[in-house]
Amino acid sequence: MENLTITKIVSGLKAKKFSCREVVSHYLKNIKGKNEEIRAYLDVFEEEALRQADGIDEKIGAEEIDTTVMGMPIAVKDNILIRGTKTTAGSKILEPYIASYSATVIEKLKHAGAVFLGKTNLDEFAMGSSTENSAFGPTRNPYDLGRVPGGSSGGSAAAVAADLALAALGSDTGGSIRQPASFCGVVGLKPTYGGVSRHGLIAMASSLDQIGPITKTVEDASLLFEAIRGRDRYDATTVETKPFVLDRRGSLRGLKVGVPKEYFGEGLEGDVGARIHQAIAELTRLGAEVQEISLPHARLALPVYYLVMPAEVSANLARFDGIRYGFSIADRCGHSQSRTDAENLYEVYAKTRADGFSAEVKRRIMLGTYALSAGYYDAYYNKAQQVRRLIQEDFKSAFRTVDIIVGPTSPTPAFRLGERTANPLQMYLADIYTVAVNLAGIPALSLPCGTVEREEKNLPVGLQFIGKWFDETTILSAAYTFEQGRKS
Amino acid sequence: MSINAKDVKHIAKLARIELTEGEVEKFEKDLDGILDFVNQLSEVDTSGILPLAGGLKEGLLITLEDGSREDEEIAPFGSPAELVDAAPKKDKGWIEVPSVF
User: Fold this and answer.
1) Which residues of chain B does A425 touch, with a Cβ-Cβ cutoff of 8 Å?
2) Which domains does chain A carry?
3) Which of A3, A155, A214, B67 could disulfide-link to A121, CB 3.0 to 4.6 Å?
4) What is this model's ipTM?
């Protein structure tokens, strides 16, 4: 049961080498042994997962199912709804909330025979880069328990890295799949905007959010992505895309790779940069034609992101009002508490939100409210959307000469717990190479490309591949070739 | 542009978040730092640049000019009772709300 991949599980199940129950039991055993120290999961579906596994075994016995992800034990970020289970989004305000429907990605995977092991930890409402900003405590990096797993999909990335799940679902608004994948030495894909339905994902910033896979191998990422992509009537931004297959020729001959000089500037740690340059040399050895390119507005991506995202956050989180879901101050009237009882509707809103949200969530809601408020809309929100177009134009112009863009996923390896929590701007810098991709709506992935040493521990470095709109095929195929090349 | 305590209180009221005096002071400092960081955008010449509101590739979004889509029969939500159940205060299938006036 070591070093399993989806392909190995499916072929093993078909050949009756093992049962789905055995596969799921293996992961449940790992979770029991290691989740207490890593804290990747908030909730584990022990009985339900085994029940699902028995169902798959029966279907395989009766030859009623034959999919590329059947029996696949996956972890799900706790901002994606699974009907009848707790979905907290890492927030106190949703602590008692039970999902009343399932996300489209969950329905698709259930239908294809995947098994859900549990829900993983995240920064509250996916706002953060370290998973320290969860109301239920931080997740730890399996490579060094004193360090963060990245975020916000830190629970999902840590679960896959520590073999507490074969694969996981995450969500990526500004790097929340790729950056934790980079910190935990696993593969993470943010699909093109419109590639995967967000129906049933708790919305953070709707013009940026995407759901995507976090896996051990590129092939697994491609199979999981293939299982969840496509048009959904419940998410108007989704489009139907063609099925794709990985190019397994083992060569990158003819592939034009652009390396943006702006991604190697100040802030990139020396040995991280060295690993990325080694990886780029490897791409050349595999036949790629590498050239330096420029994304002139790259340094503006983070300031644009910190206006656009909070503006959308302030609108999306208005629904958490103490009336509709979960936690409410109205519920606790008469109990002793730090804040006085709510006396009218406004107070139910204001006191529920004061008690239910963490400082980071409040900060972003207020920043967005400010950027959208009368007198500031043009100077902040509209200005940011104009610069956002310049950032998109940079990518369009680059993709006229290259097929993919390659660079670091993060300027540093995993940082220590508590190292950046005091200064919000310091935390935001962790996403400096990832946010532009969300602003432009293009796909990107992170895959491991070596390690650097920090305090006698080897920490993973992630290599980022950025692709054209709806061209996941090219970045996944190039990543697959790179990954296989490293093995040989 | 910088932000003061009065602005912070005003935004918090618009955002429906009650703040303590200590929080007002903290958020004034935090928001000021972030606004200072995002203010570098003011140096960019964006005259004549159309704002980009969404992540979707152009041409894929259905706009009003395309006309309305075909009518579809939408199945009613399967479990409305569960939606009401999610509310913290409810009574006989209704969600309880403090009086508005």
Assistant:
1) 33-34, 37
2) 1-320+357-488 (3.90.1300.10)
3) A155
4) 0.91
